[in-house]
Structures are given as C-alpha cells and as structure tokens.
Design brief:
By secondary structure, the protein is α+β, with helices and mostly antiparallel strands. Helices cover about 65% and strands about 5% of the residues. It is built from 24 helices and eight strands. Helix 10 packs antiparallel against helix 11. It is found in: Cell membrane.
C-alpha cells in the first residue's frame, strides 16, 4: 500500500505537470478516463490523500533546481515598468486571446459531438455505471430539496411573526426594526439551509449508495447546494416577496417577486451548471466536453441576463424616477435620476465582466465574482441603511421642548438649518466610502494598502481633524449665540433688556460670528497643510494699506465704537444724526440706518456725525406755546390750560406717559397778534409727540368752551404823522360785498330769516376792530 501510494503520488504530480500543455491544446487529446478514475479513488482514500499532500509539501519545500535555459536573458529584463498604455494593450490582447481560445474550444467540442471525436481510443462508455450514479445523485438531490422545502414550511410562521414585528413594532425606529428583523430572518434562513445540507449529507452517506461513504457526486451537489442556497438567502434579504417587513429594498411585492425569481434562476443555472454538471461531465464523459459545456452555460446565462435587463430597462427607470421625485435632498434626487438613465449600462457591464472573467480565469473566476458581488451588495445595502437611519433619526425636523423654545427661540430654526447640511455631508462621505469598498471588492483599488500608506493615513487623519474642528466651531457658535439670545429674551433673560443691551449684544453676536468663521478657516487651512503664515502677514499688510487708503472707513469704525461705548443711541431710538431726524432701525460699527417721518431710509456713516440728538433718554418734554388775543384774560387762559391737562391725566391712554404735573412758564411773548403762554409736560421718552397732540386737542376744546379766542394774525396799517404828532384823517368807507359767504347778495336775509336776524348776523356787519385813522395818502 505504501508503494502504491507513492506510485499514485508520482502519477498525480505527472498529471499536474502536464495539465497546462493539455489545457492549452484541448483538441489534440481527451485524456485517459482510467487515469482520472484512479485519481478520484486516490483522493477519496483519506490515508492516501494525506500521504500525497505530505509528498507535495516536501517537493514544495525542496524546490526544483532552476534550469539555465529558462533564465531570462539580461537583454530581456526591462529597466523600468511598462507604461500604462502598453499594460492596457497587453491586458486587452491577453483577454481577447483567452476568450478566442474558449470560443474555438467550444466550436471544436460542438463539432466533435457530431463526429464522435470526444471518445478516446479504446475507451468505452459504461452505461450501467452512469445510470446507477445518475439515479443515486437524483435521489440525493430530491431528498435534499424535499428537506429544504419542509424546513422552509415549518419556519414560515416564524418569518410571519418577525415581519409583523418589523411593520408594527414599537420602541425603535423603522430602519432599526427592519435591520434587526432581516438579520433574524436571515439567521433562520441560514439555519434552514444548514439543516437541509446536513440532512442531505446523512441521506447520501447512510441511505443511498454504499453505506458509510459519501460519493464524490453527492459531495459536489451538496457543496453546490450550500453555496447557491446561501446566495439565494442573501437575495431574499433584498427581495422578500412574501413578507413585507423583511424586504430591505423599498419596492412592491410584485416587483420583489419578479426580481427574486429572475436572480434565483440565474444563480441556479450558473451555480449548479458550473459546480455540479461540468465536473461530472469532466469525469464521466470528457474534460474538453465539460470545458465547452461550462463556456456554453456562461454564454447562455449572459444572454439571459442581457435579455432581462433590456426588457426591464424602461420599467425600472420609471420606478427609480418615482423614488427620485420623492427624495428630499437635491443631491439624492439628481443621483437617482442619473442612475435611472444609466442603470442598464452598469448591469450589462457587470454581466460582461463576469463572462470575461469566467472565460479567461476558469479556475478562480467564479469564487472571485461571487465574493466581489457579495461585498458590493453588502457595501451598497449597508450604505443605504445608514443613510435611511440618519434620515429617520436626525433628518426629520427637530422639535425642542416648549420651555427650551421659550428660552431660546432661535435655537430650533438654527438646528433645523444646520442638520440638513450636515446630513448632506455625511451622505457624501458614505457614498465615497461605498464606492471605495466596491472598487476594492473588484480589485480596481486596494483599500487596505492605500490606508496603510502615508498618504492614505494622512488624508483620513486630516479629514477627521477637519470634521472635529468644524463640529467644535458649530457647537461653540450654537452655545454662545444661544446665550446671547437668552439674555435678549425678555421672558427668561431677567426682564426686557435695555436698548443699549440689545444693540451691544447684537453687535457682539455679529463680531462673534466673524471671529469664529475666521479662526475656523485658519485652523482648517493649517490642518490640511496650507501655511497660513503668509496669509496672516498678507492680511496685516492689507489692513495697513486699507488704513492709509480708506481713512474715512477707519474714521467710521472708530467713531462708531465710541458712539456705542458712550451709549449715544440704540436701535429704536428717535435721533437726529447728520441733520436727519428719524428712528434708528439698524446700527452697525460703521453706520446707522435712519427711517424718517416720510418713510425714507437713510444710511448715515459715523464719520459725518458731529452731534447725536437722542429723543429717547430717560424722559422727554412736550413744550407748547398757545397764543390768545390781547383782549382775553391771561389768568382765564392758564386756568383753561390746567383744566385741559387735568382731563389729559384722567385719560387711560395717556396718564401712564405723564411723569409730572403741568409746568406753566407764563407769558413768553407779546407777539404781533397774540399773547403767547408756554407750558411744559414731562413724559416718558418717545411719547412726547403723542401726548402733545392729545393736549393740543383738549386746549382747543377748552378755549372754545370758555370763549377764549386764539387770534388770527393781524396787520396794522400806518400812514405816518406830522411834526406836531397830528394824524390827518383818512376817509374810510366800508363797501358792502356783492355776495356774502353763503353765495347770496350782501345784506339779503336767507329764506325763513327776518331782516332783524340778518342785521344781527356778524357776517353782515363790518368788523368792529377794523377801525383807525388814515391820512389822505
């Protein structure tokens, strides 16, 4: 037995050594079926297999001696690596050559099927053995699938319960419930596949064929069953057609059933064809036929996939566009719309790549494509779930408590403006990471090597540092701005703040924003590797140049600082600045915005301000001068003024604005037509005008009630006198007006009036005060 094992070991080494030339020229010979059968029996024997493995390891440790004729001549050694275009050209040529070889082999195999050239010389097909093996394998397949279907039916109530909890559960966000439910369902699904796999192994070992031995055929099928059904379980995680709560992708049940059925067929065709049918054909018929059959299966799967993709191109495009229109972020909407137009191109490129890899690398293409696809699906699904989780947790509108909204009224809208922007940045980072993982899965980008390099670690470290700096800056701004708003809030900041406090805190908030933005920008630039020393020096030189070239601006700022320090005016004050009187609506460090009585808005730079007249400090006065006729009693007029003030004080609308009793200064002028009496009323700041208007109304009413005349302006005509102080008489004649003020001829009574009443009408009589002496001139 030991000698036999060594002999078989050398036979295996010889087969391995000549395997490459045999595969390069598959049409020249089909191999000896007896040798393959002997090799299969050798691998089935555990002791012989271990001895063969040990022998191969010994040979690998010793290593064959290098042959001089295989050494690369010095002239053939390149001094440098080939250029990128040359590498692409060589790779393309190699791929085309490999695909051409596979197509030629397929054509040769198909031709040999009709000519009978696949059977070796002297070899005969054992129909009885083939029939027995086919029956045994069919029984194993039937038993395994029967166990799988039975276990799936037993697990159906469990799937239903998990789905209901995912849809109607409470305590977690919908995305977290969905993820947990899908994970539990996937665990149950894997357990069902594992139980069916173990049951199939037991049946194949103890019930079918020779008891206690697992045939190679059954082992091939069971291994393929485990891999393929696990892949289908992964597909069911995405397209669960029966259970709404176990479907990761947001599509309808009809769509999920269609795509689940299509992908399952494709996986079954490729998986069972390459992992079961092709190896069995290699062993029982001919390796060349198996190789050609594998190529034919891949071409058939490729054509089937292309047909399905092209058939559903528009339907899936419309479905993706519907999702794009429902997206809240503009970036997501544009990305989905772009993907809707190009998804079929990505799908066709994927299937074409799988076909090329399978034809050029038949040994390891299927595992590579399998794991790359799984990694791609995992990266995309995890990215989508993270994005959805972020949208459901922090992407919704933030609602603060009533007490916090009352204390900090601007905090909630500020958070709701910052969070969507932060969510866009996080989604962009997730998208970049997903793209890098997908490229790494397909070998286009080595993510581990890039991160291990100095450039990769440096870039990741800088990005993390910048994110931390920005987060700290935003947190600092939110905290300080909220504190300022708390001080400005009359409900929580210790009462209504003064106008000076409002102005200074508003200016401080603006200065704080500028400071935080400037410092954050400088720190971020320094963190990403930009030398900010020249920037700071340049800013100093620029400031000096501005100081010399813009003296007015400097004067504006300096004057504005002192105006604020001295509390000369605040927002809302009525002031006179630069010859303009109005309400100060906006106050900055450089200028003040004035709204005058006509509604015109004026911007007055502080450099043009010499004097600030503020009408809103502590208290104010209404100063009024009221003229009475010379014939009226001054004392009666003062009494009427006091009575008007007493009535004003009794008015509910004005009494709270009056701070002191009426001050009567007395007669201040003996004017041409009147005797002027001045009074002053002390009021709260800003109410002196309204108080004065109300007092003027009451004065007119009280003067009218007492018959005190507020005279019109009078004119005295003087014709001169002689040296003896005599005034020559002037002929005076009062002429009757042709029409009186009612439009009637002068002196005629109105209808219903007596002539006596007409005579008593003062309008029909000359003015008794219009008297005097006139000289002849």
């Amino acid at each position: 037995m030991r000698a036999l094992s060594l002999t078989l070991g050398w036979l295996l080494i010889a087969l391995v050594a000549f395997a490459a030339p045999a595969q390069a020229q598959p049409a020249e010979g089909s191999g000896d079926p007896a040798a393959y059968a002997t090799l299969a029996e050798l691998l089935e024997d555990e002791q012989s297999r271990q001895q063969l493995i040990d022998r191969l390891r010994d040979l690998a440790d010793d290593g064959p001696a290098p042959r001089p004729e295989t050494a690369t001549p010095p002239s053939a050694t390149p001094d440098a690596e080939p250029s990128l275009p040359r590498q692409l050209a060589e790779a393309t040529s190699r791929i085309v050559s490999d695909v051409g070889d596979q197509v030629d082999n397929l054509i040769g195999v198909v031709g040999a099927l009709f000519t009978g050239g696949l059977s070796g010389e002297g070899s005969a097909f054992d129909t009885a053995a083939f029939s027995s093996a086919a029956i045994n394998l069919g029984l194993v397949i039937l038993a395994t699938f029967a166990l799988f279907v039975g276990f799936r039916r037993l697990a159906r109530p469990l799937f239903t319960g998990i789905s209901q909890w995912s849809l109607n559960g409470a305590g977690l966000t919908p995305v977290l419930r969905l993820v947990l439910s899908v994970a539990l369902a996937a665990l149950v699904d894997v357990l069902v596949v594992a139980l069916a796999y173990v049951g199939g192994n037991l049946i194949a070992t103890f019930a079918i064929g020779e008891t206690g031995e697992l045939s190679t055929r059954a082992s091939l099928f069971l291994n393929a069953f485990l891999v393929i059904e696990l892949l289908k379980a992964a597909v069911r995680m995405l397209f669960s057609s029966r259970y709404e709560g176990l479907r990761l992708l947001p599509i309808t049940a009809h769509e999920a059933a269609y795509w689940n059925r299509w992908i399952a067929r494709l996986i079954g065709l490729v998986g069972y064809g390459l992992m079961v049918v092709v190896p069995l054909v290699n062993v029982y018929l001919a390796p060349a036929l198996g190789q050609g059959l594998g190529t034919l299966i891949m071409f058939g799967a490729f054509l089937y996939a292309v047909a399905v993709v092209l058939k559903n191109r528009r339907r899936l495009r419309d479905a993706i566009n519907v999702k794009a229109n429902q997206a809240t972020l503009a970036a997501s909407r544009v990305s989905l719309q772009l993907f809707a137009r190009t998804w079929h191109l990505f799908a066709l490129a994927y299937f074409l790549m799988v076909l090329v890899l399978t034809l050029t690398r038949p040994a390891d293409a299927l595992p590579f494509v399998l794991f790359a696809t799984l990694k791609t699906l995992a990266a995309v699904v995890v990215g989508m779930l993270l994005s959805s989780l972020l949208s459901q947790t922090i992407g919704r509108r933030i609602t603060l408590s009533e007490d916090l909204r009352r204390k900090l009224p601007l905090l909630e809208p500020r958070l709701n403006s910052y969070v969507p922007n932060a969510l866009r940045v996080i989604r962009t980072i997730i998208l970049i990471v997903v793209v890098m993982l997908v490229l790494n899965a397909w070998g286009a980008f080595d993510l581990a090597a890039w991160y291990a390099s100095e450039a990769g670690r440096g870039l990741v470290g800088k990005l993390v540092s910048v994110a931390v700096i920005l987060a700290i800056a935003v947190a600092a701004w939110l905290g300080l701005a909220s504190l300022i708003e708390h001080k400005l809030n009359p409900e929580t900041g210790g009462g209504v703040p003064s106008a000076r406090a409002q102005t200074l805190l508003a200016l401080f908030r603006n200065a704080l924003a500028i400071t935080i933005i400037t410092m954050t920008a400088m720190i971020v630039l320094a963190e990403i590797g930009i030398n900010i020393g020249p920037l700071i020096a340049g800013a100093g030189v620029l400031g000096l140049a501005i100081g010399f070239g813009a003296q007015k601006l400097v004067q504006d700022i300096i004057t504005g600082i002192f105006i604020q320090v001295e509390n000369a005016m605040n927002t809302g004050d009525v002031v006179t600045v630069g010859g303009i009187t109005g309400t100060a609506e906006r106050l900055s460090i450089r200028s003040v915005g004035i709204r005058d009585l006509n509604g015109t808005y004026h911007i007055v730079p502080f450099s043009s301000v010499d004097t600030v007249s503020n009408y809103m400090r502590d208290f104010a006065y209404h100063v009024g001068e009221y003229g009475i006729a010379y014939r009226e009693s001054i004392d009666d007029a003062i009494v009427a003024l006091r009575e008007a003030f007493d009535e004003l004080v009794a008015d509910d609308d004005h009494k709270m604005n009056i701070l002191a009793p009426l001050e009567v200064a007395g007669v201040v002028a003996l004017a041409d037509s009147s005797v002027n009496i001045r009074v002053r009323i002390k009021t709260t700041p800003g109410t002196q005008w309204a108080t004065g208007r109300a007092f003027n109304r009451l004065v007119k009413l009280h003067f009218d009630a007492k018959g005190i005349e507020i005279p019109f302006p009078h004119t005295t005509l003087y014709f001169g006198v002689g040296k003896e102080a005599e005034a020559p008489p002037a002929n005076l004649r009062v002429m009757q007006q042709p029409f009186d003020i009612d439009g009637r001829p002068g002196g005629q009574p109105r209808s219903g009036e007596s002539s006596r009443e007409s005579e008593d009408d003062p309008r029909a009589k000359p003015n008794p005060e219009f008297t005097g002496d006139f000289d002849e001139d």
